């Protein structure tokens, strides 16, 4: 093996080979494979980053799993359920469940001068996980939940700009119940997620405000939001929890309804799945480019080194030994190209991650710039896959070695 590897290195990169055609072919092959690997790395990182950003933002607003009243009404004007459910303690002990929180929603109308905007007031309690919103608060701070009903609210930058509000301003929001009601709130913080569909709609407040507006008992809520650790287990976990909650009947005779993120966002999920198809097409094309380039390069090397092959065979080298020599030769070239491809790809990705050079329209893509996701597992799988396919493709041209007759090649030396 040492002998074969040594010869393989000499064939590819010896300074005495610079005048040969194979030397230039190898450089072209390295450049082509480097570009293919960089394109594949960037494609995977950008697409997975895009999906991750979208899912994180949408889940931050909606949660992975929602439990609410089984009501035919699909608006934010919900029928209440009791927060004192027997299954909650079991769910909190479930190792797959990350967090559970209560919520309540109420549609309303903000009037500011001559401007009118419909909004959804989302009430949160002391169990609310502020991790998501905290990362998007650009002015002010989150409000705190106390025993007394808080008038503080959190609105989006989109609403603040549209209605000309700033931190500390009083906001009048009107609601339609049996008769119209108005409430005055104080802006405590302003957030911006870039998902205009939600930024323009959601205003966060103390859940006790919603309970008071709806004239509910203090233990009533719109529902529960459940977050799990592993997004890939969402469907199976939702089905498991649905079996538990579907048989529960509330005090007023109503039943519970459980839905998951996929069910609530079918169009979005299908849209994101299309990106997987694009990735497969790009990866397939780039792998074909790398494989065909390497086959061409190896064939050129073998044909140019026919005399060397003849001499090696005349000295006692077997066909399999010489074949391994050229497979090692191809692997060395591929390894070098993959190193440069990863280096080039990582540099471009880091520049985009740091400086956001390529913007996106948030009204269409929900994010303001091309995202980057440095997932070590995906990167390793990509590199190992490219290496394996490329090395295996070397076997076919290497078989040409067995057709070379030492007697015919050496005599033309």
What can you tell me about this protein's structure?
The protein has 413 residues and is an alpha+beta fold. It has 2 domains: 2-57 and 268-410, no CATH class; 71-254, no CATH class. It has helices at residues 2-13, 21-62, 87-92, 131-134, 157-163, 196-199, 207-214, 234-245, 261-264, 266-304, 306-314, 319-355, 362-365, 376-393, 395-398, 406-410, and strands spanning 65-69, 81-82, 97-112, 115-124, 137-140, 152-156, 170-176, 180-191, 202-206, 220-221, 223-228, 256-260. Strands 1, 3, 4, 5, 6, 7, 8, 9, 11 and 12 form a 10-stranded mixed β-sheet that branches. Strand 3 (97-112) and strand 4 (115-124) form a beta hairpin. Helix 2 (21-62) packs antiparallel against helix 10 (266-304). The protein is elongated, with a radius of gyration of 31 Å. The model has no long low-confidence stretch (mean pLDDT 88).
Number of strands: 12
Tally of individual helices: 16
Q: Output the helix-strand order.
A: HHEEHEEHEEHEEHEHEEHEHHHHHHHH
Please state the overall shape, judged from the principal axes of the Cα atoms: elongated
- Mean of the pLDDT scores? 88
How many domains? The number is 2
Global structural class = alpha+beta
Low-confidence stretches: none
> Helix proportion of residues, in percent?
40-55%
Rg result? 31 Å
Q: In whole angstroms, how far apart are the ends?
A: 27 Å
Task: State the major sheet.
Answer: 10 strands, mixed
Q: What percentage of amino acids are in beta strands? A: 15-25%
